[in-house]
Amino acid sequence: MSVNDDQRGNGHSVRFDETVYTDGDQSTEKIPDDNNELNARNRLNQRRFSRRSSILKRRVNTITTSEAPRVILSDEGLKGGRVSPFTNFPFFLKMTVRSIGIVFGDIGTSPLYVVQTIFDSPPIERDVIGAIALIVWSLIVVVSLKYAIFILIADNRGEGGPFALCGLLTGQTSFLRNRTKQFVSIISILSACLLIGDSALTPAVSILSAFEGMVVAEPSLSPWTVRISVIMIIILFLIQRWGSSRLGIFFGPIMILWFILLATIGIWRITFKPSILKAFNPWEALHYLIRTKKTGFYQIGSIFLSVTGLEALYADLGHFGRWPVRFAWFALVFPAVLLNYLGQGAVIIVDSTLIDNPFYHAAPEWGLWPLLVFSVIASTIASQAVITGAFSLVSQAVAMGYCVPFTVVHTSQSIISHIYIPAVNYFLLALTLAVTIGFQTSDNLTDAYGVTVCSVMVITTILYMMVMRYSWSNPIWIVALFGIFLIIDLYTFAAICTTKIDSGGWVAIVIAVGLFIFSFSWYYGNHCLRLYLSQNCTTNLIEDLPKRFGIQEFHQTDEENNDEDDPQSLTDDENDERRFSNRTDSNEISVSIIENHFDSNTQEDSPIERTEICFTKGVGCFLSTSKKYTPYVFETFLRRMNASQEILIFLKLDYARIPLIDDDQRLIVRKFGQNIYHITTIFGYAETNVNLFNVLHLARQFYDIPITEDQSTITFYLPNETIHVNTKGWKTYLKRWPLYIYSVLKNLYPGMPLNFTSIPENTIKIGILVDL
Question: pTM value?
């Protein structure tokens, strides 16, 4: 996406060569750059399709420079998913520092509690080396190889997480069948719910483990551990409204110092027992599992805690981009945590009685309190990874129709993925407080921690293998080779389920199942609603309205006829034709807002039935999701009332991936017959107040649409679906419960367009009884 700043005097305008989101279809396409190819395709499409509409040319700008809002251009200029050290190195470094503060807090504070949970009694030296070897090779194989190198490749428009894989598998480039795509969607919803369920445990275990270090320094402070932890958790969630960009700037340098401290302590302790370096030998890890048998198998659950945070790492991909995350991991985070684990192993070998808290025992006595203070700060920051990951997951779920449309606040005008969702934030706060008060200690929490993360890890591996085969068309032998990671994941999953579910892991599972019930109900209800509307509600071509009404049709001028090759004039069907002819470039759509076009080719149409209606004074504005068809609300109103306002406007809201749009570049207006218009209005993602009166005011100023300034003559028509659940027959029993939940959620969240607020005194809601 690019935004060009054309300075006309003191003004700013935007020419679009960027991606545009639409309400009705979130898939995108890319229009070829080759003019000859473009003209040839346009002529072919003109022979196949006919339209009787014109995209009106904009008048000379009647808004002065001082009145036109200034476009806030990105001071960083790149989308998070495309940040690269080869294109913008200063920006890359900035994003790397921020990613250290946001993404790696969870995995970077795991040394606080991992090693102490492995052993129940003082171990011998070779057992310590074997256990530390398992940690070392978990970091190398699972995090470095599988996630940092392979999984991060699978981004969907720069975003990561289970919904990114779902988007790749259910998109146009996927070769899966429709039924399989639906199954993938449901599994992705389950995966996201499991990850959010784990988000309630991560802040609790990180902050509790840090404050428990006070007990090592001063045992009398033990009763205050939970109380202080609760206060820190509340503060952590309250500052989320600042956004991940500001928090990253603040947290990044702190976490860099934390990782340097981890590495320093680790190196210092390794010098006391260099034999711990045998942990780099993979045979030590494998031999430990073979030798200890059941004991080693049960310890896998504790060792897995060293890699928790890797799913948050993938979910946070859209906040910073692939290259900053990779560079931060390999250059700083990975060496630091690796050295610290080795140092803790050396401490236990020297004195096996220190297994109660080897992290704090590794520090010198004079540095215990400074380390404790730093640990508290770092563990508080550590929770940021799962919180921002939850925001990203819910935002993607809302965009894909898998979740209730919560309010999404964009906290950055430079990077679209920096968001804050108040409802999710306070929901996680309540869950985290309940878990902290309920479990009391980090030891109790670590017994429950990791079940849902490991489940998500297994699902992610399976979905990634499907992406490799059905979206990227990789050979089957490459997919099978990647299956080695799946074997490791399943072994870990079996060990965790055996040891952790009974000891508290069921808590995260219950949270995840509860979230899944609501998310699945919304997904299933929307699917049934779309199916019902397609079967029971009629829509017609907008271009047929003049004949249906028996009014004068629109005729093009010579000036308009000269612009016949503008791609913006393509209909939805023509766009579909182009979309399938450009499957390999289906990630972006190029839109020109300034140049306009009219297609003069016509052909004989099938007979259209005349509709006898009465015209009344005023303007009727119907919200639409199509550029070609009338909304079903309009057809319902016409059928019931046999009347219409003398001026008809079909309004479609689109959203661009830039923060703000200049008003003189906001509209695309098409005219169908006399006083029948279709307006596409484009808003930036940071524009949070969509005023429909202002849109119509701009249309009158720029395109001479006959709309009066008297707002009382303008009426907006919105849909109002009432869900009725069918209870006839025993076969409907299984689908009743999600539809009952959906009907309640639909009443609470009717699904109006993003950032749109209706005007009650000028709004009529057209009801429809949906029998599901």
Answer: 0.76
